[in-house]
Structure of Restriction endonuclease subunit S:
Amino acid sequence: MTEIKKENKSMSNVPNLRFPEFKGEWEVKKLGEVATNKSVKYNPINATSSIRCIELEHLASQTGELLGYIDGSKSGSIKNVFNEGDVLFGKLRPYLKKHLQAPFDGVCSSEIWVLKGTNISNDFLYRIIQTNSFIDLANQSSGSKMPRADWNVVENGLFSIPSLLEQQKIASFLSLIDERISTQSKIILRLESLIQNLRDKIFKQNLRFKTNKELDFPNWENKSLGEICEKKSSSISANKIEDNFGEYIIYGASGVLKKVDFYEEKSDYISIVKDGSGVGRLFYCKGKSSVLGTMDIIKPLANTNTYFLFYLLSNIDFTKFVTGSTIPHIYFKDYKNENFGIPSIEEQTKIAVFLSQIDDKIEIEKQLLIQYENQKNYLLQNLFI
């Protein structure tokens, strides 16, 4: 196991955490002294063959994940050339923290810096651009609506640089954390894909459950949504809860908003965003909680399991019920007449337990991912100066 220890801070220019085999202070350099953003230009007009091209939308925010690429020979605009191992950083809206260490040779948008280490390794440079010190400099940008990082500012930023061997040690160690984060993200994606496929099969009745005595459940009955659930409205505005604090959750369009000293619903329910951004988004809400007025409360009627209802609603494409262009909106009266096959309450319960167990597993894996990401952030703050 890799050993890291707290450094003796009798010397000023050393990191808080350090590998024990390294001693002495780090050397302070301007970033422009150890790295460059100069790159060869690529003109698709002169292209004779296809080439992989990375645009800003292909860079995931914060994770260093490559989401795809296009054929640069058909892009129609001048690009920056990069080589495998070069460090890419999105200079447009730098607060999005779009970065990548190039896994192949190619070209990229002119809104992406191609950074190369001149007196430091590219691997270490890739870690520097993820530190708060670099991001803070990049955010000293020009433009308000479309802010862009200014290289004249960034290249004059001061960074402490260790020996090449220590650079390699730090970069190698952090790459292990990155690999674990990537693996964890893939685990979550596989589980989310699994539950989606299972939901599809269950509600198409391609996957059925048996009673505890291994007998078939009754055939599903065709019912409208309005026959199995009801809608309630909330009148709570965000302004009314600004200075309210307590122990009960209140939900907003992005999930848990905050905790307040009151609740409107005693038992579990489903909330759906009915107004604005995220319209149609669903949340399973535990009892003794509330929602903002931009959301509707959906509650099951008799002989309907709440978790089953949540998974049924999750299979509905609510976009077809959206009205309004400036502020999108959906109304219960428009989707309550949708018809579905509905199983007996006993089979509903079996389905709900089965799917919620996978959801619980997904939540556990998401919490692990958060822990790994927090660990990486801690290391970025303490392995660097």
In short: The chain has a mean pLDDT of 93. The chain is about 30% helix and 20% strand. The first helix runs from residue 31 to 34.
